[in-house]
């Protein structure tokens, strides 16, 4: 029961990771398959990637998706950070229970319900469906994820730092930008990244709330997947996986570096 | 801790902006869904009636109220329309999937929490990484594996384990595989964070007091990880009940799940009022687990301070 | 070192005669007037009135949760009184936010901004005042010199040791030259030796800068060392406000006597009070207790006599006069602390009293040992009669 890698721990981790990664790995391998039949290996080829460049529909959808993801992640980060501040810093205020309920509920709410209800709202207020309705919908559900990520950082935030800044003559708004924000920035950035990928990834809510000219990439992929597996889709997926993997690994290496440098400096300070 | 000094307009804006946003785009839509679930389908724009006509004053409101009916609910609750079966089978599929997730996730989380400290961040990142890649892609990957001419059948036949391809794709089994696969990080992460912060000296104390390791696991480790178990189970169970993509892509035509039924009712039958009633009932089914989940989350955060 | 000597002499002269609270012509710098603070149902501060004078080093002393920190935070502006007034130099502080108050605080956790280096931390408050950059640099330089951290100006807080961080926090809160410096358990995180050194540094600094310091602490030795006056708090109420010597030698209540230092509290009945001579009787000894003190009580009233262990004498031989202020008992326990020994003496009725004696000679074998029959005596001016 000591810390360490017993055969049981090693094998459960190994099996778990095999289960998580083999399907993705196979998908990536078969995107380089020369054959149109996705299950028969016909030799190495990058032809499906070149074919993508000519697929206007897919490229359009990718462009729409990126725009929606960027705009919604920006707004969601601002609103989510505000919500996190409201929940952690301001103690009790009128309707706090309702507010925290509205923050946590979207995290587990089935997407079909969120999507349907937002669509019916847009219809009821006669809002033209398209880019902006999808963006508004994405802001709404991703801001809650941002709020939770930022909130978990804020609860360990030493509020005496804020008090010290106020005590030294810095007004509240200025204190937020000079003290609080720089210190919670890593959480805010990961909140942004989470919002961005969730928006990039969303199929159901986008399908409900979209309108003419605002077909997103997941919707495009979905409609093709329903017709069967094609190597072209494998190629799109591989590109998306590659982008996400590179960004996530780079981000984690940067934070790990900063953390280990910090620890080294702290150790040096203890000795000196 | 509340800062008494942070009063005034700054505080008001910080609370009001996200609050109003969620009231307008999260809470108000549910009220609209509820209202439409009491309306009737018509061929018009928007495709339901009655509409609230405030210009007609009190008369308008009473007219509007008198035309509302529970007809859609009776339709949904009618056994022959297969919605009830869909609710039931969704709950069963979600419950079994959650148990499978727990069985698969607990050993992984336990192994991670007991791994050397230096390895843990890497392991954690490896669990989170698939979560960052598209959900749709991860479900899609299984189509290529599970289909009759897919990689799994090819491998099994190549090894001579089976003679003819197994029917896995388009069955409930594929749905289980898809849910377990897609939701695994959501189960592992809360379990890991509960197991990781456990004080290892507790186990040493138990052993010191004469408790063998396997018994210490069931009397010490597992009870202490229960908040993580509850959080992980709810985090998987609730969305799984309303899951649409997985049963649609991996399940068969006889796989009944309420998310798929709602989607079909909306896109194929184009009945907005019935799909609203389905959504309201689904929410009623899920309201208890959602409230429990919120309480766990809240307690977790308060304990963190 | 001649200048050092003169400086010390002037400080000595000032300290010797500094007692503005006894001078009715002086107006206090800080006034708490009937301050009450409630958090929900809980009353943290219950009707506190307190005056603090300019250049005073004032200590708020009490156990945790007694309201001392709340009182300080009301002065800093982090909490507002529920009722009552707080004024600073005649100005009512109600509604003035912390960033507009001419007081600065040194936090218990130091609250150093982790993303700024030492110089930037010290300059933070000065930058808020829109001071010219050259002046800021000069002031930061001066502050770094004051706390002897000049070579560490570019270090981040996590690259400093605990003692260094403490000095950065001090320099930062002093940089703006506030009217009052608030110190919230400023030395709590330091080890004993460093803490004692720093206490004397703080006193010198306060004299040198001529500033008013208000310190919150639960450490009675710290409060006694640094402060001109101490306010002892309990359950949101001020129990006694006085100089350290008064608090120790003339405690106002049993609570103060017990909280500050070690004490034997003996429950008695008053037999007679004549002028400044009081005589009391107690069931634990046959001899009456005689105290030289003006006591406002009638014969038969309940009262307590408080005697510090070091004010008792212990002998193996019977003293010549056993008619008053005398106990007879056996040694129950001995604590040898090196500089002194503590004897627990059990009286025939079962009550135990504590006696401490300085160990004046280098003897490994002490003459008094376990189960020895001993006599404990004390002078009439050693004890204090308490009626509350």
TrEMBL record, chain A:
Main location as per UniProt: membrane
Presence of the UniProt keyword Coiled coil in the record: no
Biological process terms in GO annotation: transmembrane transport
One matching Pfam family: BPD_transp_1
Keyword Iron found: no
One Gene Ontology term, aspect cellular component: plasma membrane
Membrane topology note: Multi-pass membrane protein
ABC transmembrane type-1 domain location: 62-251
Entry keyword set: Cell membrane, Membrane, Transmembrane, Transmembrane helix, Transport
Transmembrane segments: 7-32, 68-90, 102-125, 131-155, 176-198, 233-254
Compartments, record wording: Cell membrane
Family: Belongs to the binding-protein-dependent transport system permease family. CysTW subfamily.
Name under which the protein is recorded: ABC transporter permease
UniProtKB/TrEMBL annotation, chain B:
Chief location: membrane
One GO CC term, this protein: plasma membrane
UniProt-listed SUPFAM superfamilies: MetI-like
Organism superkingdom: Bacteria
Residue span(s) of domain ABC transmembrane type-1: 87-293
Compartment(s) of residence: Cell membrane
Natural source organism: Xanthobacter tagetidis
Biological process according to GO: transmembrane transport
Protein name: ABC transporter permease subunit
Alphabetically ordered keywords of this record: Cell membrane, Membrane, Transmembrane, Transmembrane helix, Transport
Automatic annotation (TrEMBL), chain C:
Keywords associated with the record: ATP-binding, Cell inner membrane, Cell membrane, Membrane, Nucleotide-binding, Translocase, Transport
Pfam family, one: ABC_tran
PROSITE patterns referenced in this protein's UniProt entry, alphabetically: ABC_TRANSPORTER_1 (PS00211), ABC_TRANSPORTER_2 (PS50893)
Keyword rRNA-binding: no
Coiled-coil intervals: none
Domain ABC transporter: start-end pairs: 30-260
Positions of transmembrane segments: none
GO CC annotation terms, alphabetical: ATP-binding cassette (ABC) transporter complex
Enzyme class: translocase
Function according to Swiss-Prot or TrEMBL: Part of the ABC transporter complex PotABCD involved in spermidine/putrescine import. Responsible for energy coupling to the transport system.
Record-stated family: Belongs to the ABC transporter superfamily. Spermidine/putrescine importer (TC 3.A.1.11.1) family.
Official protein name in the record: Spermidine/putrescine import ATP-binding protein PotA
Organism: Xanthobacter tagetidis
Lineage: Bacteria, Pseudomonadati, Pseudomonadota, Alphaproteobacteria, Hyphomicrobiales
Gene: potA
């Amino acid at each position: 029961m000591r810390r360490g890698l017993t055969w049981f721990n090693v094998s459960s981790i190994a099996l778990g990771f095999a289960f998580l990664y083999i399907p993705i790995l196979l998908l990536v391998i078969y995107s380089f398959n020369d054959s149109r039949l996705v299950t028969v290996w016909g030799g190495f080829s990058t032809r499906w990637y070149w074919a993508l460049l000519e697929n206007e529909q897919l490229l359009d959808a990718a462009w729409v998706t990126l725009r929606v993801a960027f705009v919604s992640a920006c707004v969601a980060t601002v609103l989510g950070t505000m919500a996190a501040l409201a929940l952690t810093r301001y103690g009790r205020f009128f309707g706090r229970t309702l507010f925290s309920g509205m923050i946590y509920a979207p995290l587990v709410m089935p997407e079909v319900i969120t999507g349907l209800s937002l669509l019916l709202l847009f219809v009821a207020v006669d809002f033209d469906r398209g880019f902006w309705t999808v963006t508004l919908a994405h802001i709404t559900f991703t801001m809650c994820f941002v709020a939770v990520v930022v909130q978990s950082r804020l609860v360990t935030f030493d509020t005496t730092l804020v008090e010290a800044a106020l005590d030294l003559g810095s007004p509240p708004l200025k204190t937020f930008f000079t003290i609080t924000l720089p210190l919670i920035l890593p959480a805010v950035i990961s909140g942004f990244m989470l919002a961005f990928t969730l928006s990039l990834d969303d199929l159901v809510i986008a399908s409900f709330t979209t309108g003419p000219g605002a077909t997103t990439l997941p919707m495009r992929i979905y409609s093709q997947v329903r017709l069967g597996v094609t190597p072209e889709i494998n190629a799109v997926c591989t590109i998306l996986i590659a982008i996400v993997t590179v960004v996530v690994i780079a981000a984690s290496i940067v934070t790990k570096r900063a953390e280990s440098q910090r620890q080294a400096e702290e150790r040096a300070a203890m000795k000196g | 801790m509340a800062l008494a000094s942070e009063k005034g307009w700054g505080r008001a804006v910080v609370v009001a902006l996200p609050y109003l946003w969620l009231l307008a785009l999260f809470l108000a839509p549910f009220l609209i869904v509820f209202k439409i679930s009491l309306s009737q389908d018509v061929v018009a724009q928007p495709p339901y009636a009655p509409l609230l006509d405030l210009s007609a004053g009190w008369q308008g409101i009473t007219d509007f109220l008198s035309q509302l009916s529970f007809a859609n609910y009776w339709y949904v609750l009618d056994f022959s329309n297969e919605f009830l079966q869909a609710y039931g089978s969704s709950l069963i599929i979600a419950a079994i999937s959650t148990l499978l997730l727990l069985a698969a996730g607990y050993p992984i989380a336990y192994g991670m929490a007991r791994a050397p400290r230096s390895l843990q961040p890497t392991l954690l990142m490896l669990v989170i990484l698939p979560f960052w890649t598209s959900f749709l892609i991860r479900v899609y990957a299984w189509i290529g594996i599970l289909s009759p001419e897919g990689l799994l059948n090819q491998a099994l036949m190549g090894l001579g384990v089976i003679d003819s391809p197994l029917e896995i794709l388009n069955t409930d089994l594929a749905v289980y595989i898809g849910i377990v696969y897609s939701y695994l990080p959501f189960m592992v992460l809360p379990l890991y964070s509960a197991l990781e912060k456990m004080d290892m000296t507790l186990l040493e104390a138990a052993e010191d007091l004469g408790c063998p390791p396997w018994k210490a696991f069931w009397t010490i480790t597992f009870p202490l990880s229960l908040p993580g178990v509850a959080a992980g189970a709810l985090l998987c169970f609730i969305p799984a009940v309303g899951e649409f993509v997985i049963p649609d892509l991996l399940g068969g035509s006889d796989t009944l799940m309420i998310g798929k039924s709602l989607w079909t009712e909306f896109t194929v039958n184009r009945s907005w009022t019935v799909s609203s009633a389905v959504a309201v009932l689904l929410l009623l089914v899920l309201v208890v687990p959602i409230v429990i989940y919120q309480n766990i989350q809240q307690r977790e955060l308060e304990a963190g301070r | 070192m001649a200048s050092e000597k003169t400086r010390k002499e002037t400080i000595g002269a000032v300290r010797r005669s500094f007692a503005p609270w006894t001078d009715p012509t002086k107006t206090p710098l800080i006034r708490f007037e009937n301050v009450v603070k409630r958090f929900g149902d809980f009353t943290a501060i219950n009707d506190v009135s307190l005056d603090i004078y300019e250049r005073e080093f004032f200590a708020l002393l009490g156990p945790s949760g007694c309201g001392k920190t709340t009182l300080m935070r009301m002065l800093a502006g982090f909490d507002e009184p529920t009722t009552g007034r707080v004024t600073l130099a005649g100005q009512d502080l109600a509604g003035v936010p912390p960033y507009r108050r001419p007081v600065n605080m040194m936090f218990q956790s130091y609250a150093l901004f982790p993303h700024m280096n030492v110089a930037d931390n010290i300059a933070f408050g000065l930058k808020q005042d829109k001071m010219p950059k050259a002046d800021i640099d000069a002031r930061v330089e001066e502050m770094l010199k004051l706390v002897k951290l000049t070579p560490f100006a570019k270090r981040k807080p996590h690259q400093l040791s605990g003692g260094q961080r403490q000095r950065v926090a001090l320099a930062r809160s002093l940089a703006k030259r506030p009217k009052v410096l608030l110190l919230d358990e400023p030395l709590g995180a330091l080890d004993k030796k460093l803490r004692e050194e720093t206490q004397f540094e703080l006193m010198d600094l306060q004299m040198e800068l001529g500033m008013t310091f208000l310190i919150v602490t639960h450490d009675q030795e710290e409060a006694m060392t640094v402060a001109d006056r101490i306010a002892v708090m309990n359950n949101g109420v001020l129990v006694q406000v006085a100089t350290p010597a008064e608090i120790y030698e003339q405690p106002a209540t049993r609570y103060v006597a017990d909280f500050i230092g070690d004490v034997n509290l003996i429950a008695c009945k008053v037999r007679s009070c004549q002028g400044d001579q009081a005589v009391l009787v107690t069931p634990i000894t046959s001899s009456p207790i005689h105290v030289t003190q003006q006591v406002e009580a009638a014969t038969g009233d309940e009262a307590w006599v408080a005697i510090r262990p070091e004010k008792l004498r212990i002998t193996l031989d019977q003293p010549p006069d056993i008619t008053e202020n005398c106990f007879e008992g056996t040694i129950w326990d001995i604590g040898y602390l090196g500089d002194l020994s503590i004897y627990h003496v059990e009286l025939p009725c079962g009550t135990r009293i504590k006696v401490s004696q300085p160990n004046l000679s280098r003897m490994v074998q002490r003459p008094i040992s376990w189960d020895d029959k001993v006599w404990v005596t004390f002078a009439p001016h050693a004890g204090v009669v308490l009626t509350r």
